[in-house]
């Protein structure tokens, strides 16, 4: 089936972006893809990320014939966006750490960035910092453990459990004296409210969600009028009973039709 917009992530990280997009453009035919076969991208080499991103994108184009792909994964965007644009003719919108936003809102010019190891160590992040936050001190944190917890059900856990999960990061950033934190892995947006609550009042929390969705709608404006369109969710790789149960739950939570394997 033709889906005009496709959102791609390694797992559930991009779902907050997808929900925001669907609020802005309910009539847009869209699909969400979680590349579980290669999750987590954040622990891979740059070359592996590029290889897997190209592979899953080819599969998406063959199966869904999208007009545009929104890469709602910081790791995939920082490492593979250039390769995707060179290899395929459709437009891509990427998701990159909101360093520019953080530099604009930070008062003391001390910024914390929490992301995957791949994003934290990628030259792309260094370039972003050099371009937009050269006058800032940057505290970096790679947190694969928190990404895994979020992917595996933390988003439906009690608030106390969520607070406990984010506190190691908050403590590191408070000790470093930052006044702004960048959520630079889309998975962390599922806990944006928890981060904000635990960091308040002295630390602000920023992310790239509004900017990415606005840019996607600028690049490919949605059809005007019409009925609200149902959106679909697919995953790659083997669908175990556990994955089926998890993703059926996520689809219910985000109002998506569960379609199983891509």
How would you sum up this structure, described in words?
This protein is 46% helix and 17% strand. It has eleven helices and ten strands. It is globular and about 50 Å long. The chain has helices at 15-24, 46-64, 74-87, 99-105, 117-120, 123-132, 144-151, 159-175, 192-199, 209-219, 241-253; strands spanning 5-9, 30-34, 68-71, 92-93, 110-115, 137-142, 180-183, 204-206, 232-235, 257-261. With 262 residues, the protein is α/β, with parallel strands linked by helices. The strands form two sheets. It has a six-stranded parallel β-sheet, sandwiched between helices. It has a four-stranded parallel β-sheet with strand order 6-5-7-8, sandwiched between helices.
Determine the strand fraction and express it as a percent band: 15-25%
**Can you tell me the overall shape?**
globular
Helical segment tally? Answer: 11
Could you give the distance between the termini? Answer: 12 Å
Order of helices and strands: EHEHEHEHEHHEHHEHEHEHE
Percent of residues in helices: 40-55%
Task: State the low-pLDDT regions, or none.
Answer: none
Task: Report strand order across the widest sheet.
Answer: 4-3-1-2-9-10
Which structural class is indicated by helix and strand composition? alpha/beta
Quick one: biggest sheet?
6 strands, parallel
Q: How would you state the average pLDDT, rounded?
A: 95
């Amino acid at each position: 089936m033709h889906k005009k917009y496709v959102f791609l992530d390694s797992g559930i990280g991009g779902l907050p972006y997808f929900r925001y997009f669907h609020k802005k453009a309910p009539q847009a035919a869209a699909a969400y893809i979680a590349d579980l076969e290669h999750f987590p991208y954040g622990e891979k080499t740059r070359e592996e990320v590029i290889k897997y991103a190209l592979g899953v994108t080819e599969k998406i184009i063959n199966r869904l014939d999208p007009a545009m792909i929104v890469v709602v994964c910081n790791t995939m965007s920082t490492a593979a966006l250039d390769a995707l644009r060179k290899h395929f003719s459709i437009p891509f919108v990427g998701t990159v750490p909101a360093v520019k936003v953080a530099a604009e809102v930070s008062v003391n010019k001390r910024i914390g960035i929490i992301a995957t190891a791949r994003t934290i160590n990628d030259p792309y992040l260094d370039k972003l910092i050099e371009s937009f936050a050269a006058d800032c001190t940057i505290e970096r944190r790679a947190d694969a453990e928190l990404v895994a917890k979020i992917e595996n059900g933390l988003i439906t856990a009690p608030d106390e459990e969520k607070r406990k999960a984010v506190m190691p990061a908050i403590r590191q950033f408070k000790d470093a004296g930052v006044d702004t934190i960048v959520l630079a892995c889309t998975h962390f947006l599922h806990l944006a409210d928890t981060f904000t609550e635990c960091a308040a009042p002295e630390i602000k929390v920023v992310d790239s969600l509004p900017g990415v969705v606005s840019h996607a709608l600028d690049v490919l404006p949605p059809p005007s009028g019409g009925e609200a369109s149902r959106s679909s969710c697919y995953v790659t790789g083997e669908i175990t009973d556990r994955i089926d149960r998890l993703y059926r739950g996520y689809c219910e939570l985000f109002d998506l039709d569960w379609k199983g394997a891509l």
